[in-house]
Amino acid sequence: MSTINLKLPLKEEDVRSLHVGDVVTLTGRIFTARDMGHLKIRELYQAGKPLPKDFEGAAVFHAGPVCLKNEDGSWRLNVIGPTTSIRMEPHADLVGKLGVRAVLGKGGMAEDTLRACAEYGYVYLQAAPGCAAKLGQGITSINDVTWFELGMPEALWDLNAVEFGPLVVGMDTHGNSIYKTLRENATRIMNEIYPE
Amino acid sequence: MNIEVSKAALHDACLRAVTEISADVKGLLQAALDRETNDTAKSMLSSMLDNLRIAKEQDKAVCQSPGYPTTWISFGDGNFPAFAHDTIAEALGEATRKGYLRPSIVDPLTRHNPGNNTGEGVPNIEYQYHPGQPYVDYIISFKGCGAELGNAMKIFTTATLKLDKDFEGLKRFVLETVINAGGKPCPPFGIGIGIGGQMDIASKLSREAISTRKWDDENPDPLLNRLEKELLTNINKMGLGAAGTGGDTVCLALKIAKAATHTAIAPVAINFHCWVARRAGIRVWDDGRVETIL
């Protein structure tokens, strides 16, 4: 398998050329956001207020890192890994409208996201689950943190990444989802083993 | 019982549990990689084994999520460890300050995060009394919570179990639950199944089965042992694979525990455990000896 190294911010054509099963790494700024972060972004977006980051071409990582505070008040990353993405499924259109080009996480997402991937032009990238020490090696520094009052996991962290990955394209802009295909295949096998 | 010896051993076990996974699970991961035929799954399994090595070498947390801490304590006569709750809470606070545990325990409604991985009911402890036991066993387990998103529970009846068809109703429920969970519980996962009691008992048994047993052990009950093996084989036949992106091994181990129930019902709880099996077990004898049991 050859690995494609993508530079952030991503262009629409970068992600439209990807297909499920491709392996990529990311270099540039990555933003974390999970349940509470998405809710905050939605609130601001709907009120027409400015967002804390420019999401055009961005990679949004479903993750809550472990960070340690330096004596000068800045932060350093200890480890980071993906959280379960399906919780963010209700925000499928929102991230598309923001111009996000890559959503990173684990476990895959569902129909609304698959439709939004094609409509707005973004991909879902699967990171290896539970590999926080290894994945942390791809983050070189922390730019800043927004909404720290939500707690360390729920805050929005702005990270510098160098060849962060490997990440597998789990859902592409062409209507394909590894998760959907596997699920249909698994259901067929289950029906053969234990018929209803 | 020497309280200071017990406190120190329990503290060390808590810290061991957050920086490595148990040896039985590591062995099963390596075996899964050795027989894997899918390239993506091979890459995912290799990343997992690399991750364990890096975490160990760099003295870092294995996973960013500390999960939820439960400790099983079994005690005998005159050795009840009244100090255990505070010792565990202090160890969690220390591990949080040192960056081994991300502060992740919050109020379920307000989502307030006190920042030290403790709160109402946390750390959770399950006490078990065994008359005459001359030692205290402690098993501390941090179970990830993405895995919880795949869990399921159902109150079966004799008819829906399909008792006449070798429990096919139960077996289908297990496979359906695995398909619905997909990649959410950080595969290759373990599965604990609790059968019997009422809803609360089946659920507790499901967590205890997968959190306290070695993942490569054999169930001494012949029926449960047969069901465990059959379900494990058939779950892996479905092709979901490590990370849920396809492959030969989505499930490393499946453990069943049962308790008597009422003649009208058969409660079944299915509990996923991510591959990051962070746990540690120690036995502290009343004469002060300390053994590692997990």
Notable characteristics:
heterodimer, A: 196 residues, alpha/beta, fumarase, five-stranded mixed beta barrel, two-stranded antiparallel sheet, 6 helices, 9 strands, B: 294 residues, alpha+beta, Dihydrodipicolinate Reductase, domain 2, 60s Ribosomal Protein L30, Chain: A, five-stranded mixed beta sheet, four-stranded mixed beta sheet, 8 helices, 38% helix
Q: Can you name the CATH architecture of the largest domain in chain B?
A: 2-Layer Sandwich
CATH fold name of the largest domain in chain B, please? 60s Ribosomal Protein L30, Chain: A
* Overall body shape of chain B: globular
Query: pLDDT under 50 segments of chain A (min length 5)?
Result: none
What does this protein look like?
The complex is a heterodimer of chains A (about 200) and B (about 290). With about 200 residues, chain A is α/β, with parallel strands linked by helices. Chain A has a single domain, classed as Fe-S hydro-lyase, tartrate dehydratase beta-type, catalytic domain (fumarase, Alpha-Beta Barrel). Chain A is built from 6 helices and 9 strands. In chain A, helix 3 (about 90-100) packs parallel to helix 4 (about 110-120). Chain A starts with a strand and ends with a helix. Chain B has about 290 residues and is α+β, with helices and mostly antiparallel strands. Chain B folds into 2 domains: about 5-20 and about 60-145 and about 275-290, Dihydrodipicolinate Reductase, domain 2 (2-Layer Sandwich), CATH 3.30.360; about 145-275, 60s Ribosomal Protein L30, Chain: A, CATH 3.30.1330. Helix content of chain B is about 40%, strand content about 25%. Chain B is built from 8 helices and 9 strands.
What's the layout of helices and strands?
The complex is a heterodimer of chains A (196) and B (294).
Chain A: E1 3-7, H1 12-16, E2 23-32, H2 35-46, E3 59-61, E4 66-69, E5 75-79, H3 92-98, E6 102-105, H4 111-121, E7 123-127, H5 132-136, E8 139-146, E9 156-171, H6 178-193
Parallel strand pairs in A: 1-2, 2-3, 3-6, 6-7
Antiparallel strand pairs in A: 2-9, 4-5, 7-9, 8-9
Chain B: H1 3-19, H2 23-35, H3 39-57, E1 68-75, H4 84-97, E2 124-129, E3 135-143, E4 152-156, H5 158-161, H6 168-181, E5 189-197, H7 199-212, H8 222-237, E6 251-261, E7 266-273, E8 278-285, E9 290-292
Parallel strand pairs in B: 1-2, 5-6
Antiparallel strand pairs in B: 1-3, 3-8, 4-7, 5-7, 8-9
Helix pairs in contact in B: 1-4, 2-3
